[in-house]
Amino acid sequence: MNNRLVAGSTAKTPAAIKRPNRWKMLNRLAADADELVEMNQEAWTIQRGVMPSASLIALDKAASWLRDFDEYGRELTARCRAMRDDLDPEDFYDDGGDGDLKREVIADRLALFVGSFPGGVPNGDPEAYCAMMLEHITAIDELRFVALDDACREVAERPKDFAPGPGQLIAAIREKQKLWEERLSAADVIEGRAKYIAAQIERLRPQIEARETERRVEEAQYDLNAALARVKRERDELAMQQGHAAEVAQRIANGFARLAAREAEVEDAARKLADANAGPLALPPPKDCRDA
């Protein structure tokens, strides 16, 4: 389809739209940007939730994130920005990149989109169809070209011979717009978050370390007090047991004394028994007999 059918389209499609391997680069940008979004969300959590708690755990978590960002995140950010500049260049937008997506850029991409359907448009009037679609798309605020490009590709890959009505494409564009806003925003703000986290680490480190020292002292004092209490309990228990032991020892001594007395009684009784078994006693003769 000749893209001149779209009102406002240029005679020659911009090179960035027709560049080789555009889909491959777009896929790579989406994957890298999604990873960057995840890192950015973690940084936001640290910035908003963890750092204000001013704890050593928070400091360690922030420092760990910063190390990961320095080792990998900065390179990932630079790569995403480079691919964004190729796939979503500033000259596609009014006011040097600060304005809306140019009408002619939208028209050129829409012409390629409509031309990808072998059956053409449902009503058989490509110019009217494209003009209507162009008005719908240009009404979308802050539309990014990568979102438009990604949506057109997704809808064009659906198994249909005819170009869809505006509702399907507009819905796909809005969905992609939300997704790409988050992706591109992450590439823009994550380095600022990294600087903020680094500054907060340096600012909070003395305070956090002082609080951690105080916490360790309190824990050590608690442990010492607990150990002293256990020592006192053991001493009291031993003292009580010693008292009981002294009483028991006295009872044992008294018992041995009684036992000795009983044994002496046994020996005395045994002697008496032996003497009894020895026979009658030899009595002295009568006095009269002695006199004779």
Describe what you observe in this structure:
This protein is an all-alpha fold and 292 residues long. It has a domain at 3-206. It is 75% helix and 0% strand. The chain has eight helices and no strands. The chain has helices spanning 15-18, 22-50, 56-87, 103-115, 126-138, 145-156, 166-277, 287-291. Helix 2 crosses helix 7, helix 3 (56-87) runs antiparallel to helix 7 (166-277) and helix 4 packs parallel to helix 6 (145-156). The radius of gyration is 50 Å and the shape is rod-shaped. Mean pLDDT is 83; it is low at 1-9.
Query: Number of DSSP strands?
Result: 0
Overall SS class: mainly alpha
Judging from the principal axes of the Cα atoms, what is the shape? Answer: rod-shaped
Major β-sheet profile:
none
Query: Can you give the mean pLDDT?
Result: 83
Beta-strand percent range: under 5%
The helix content, as a percent range, equals: over 70%
Number of discrete helical segments: 8
Distance between the amino and carboxyl termini: 182 Å
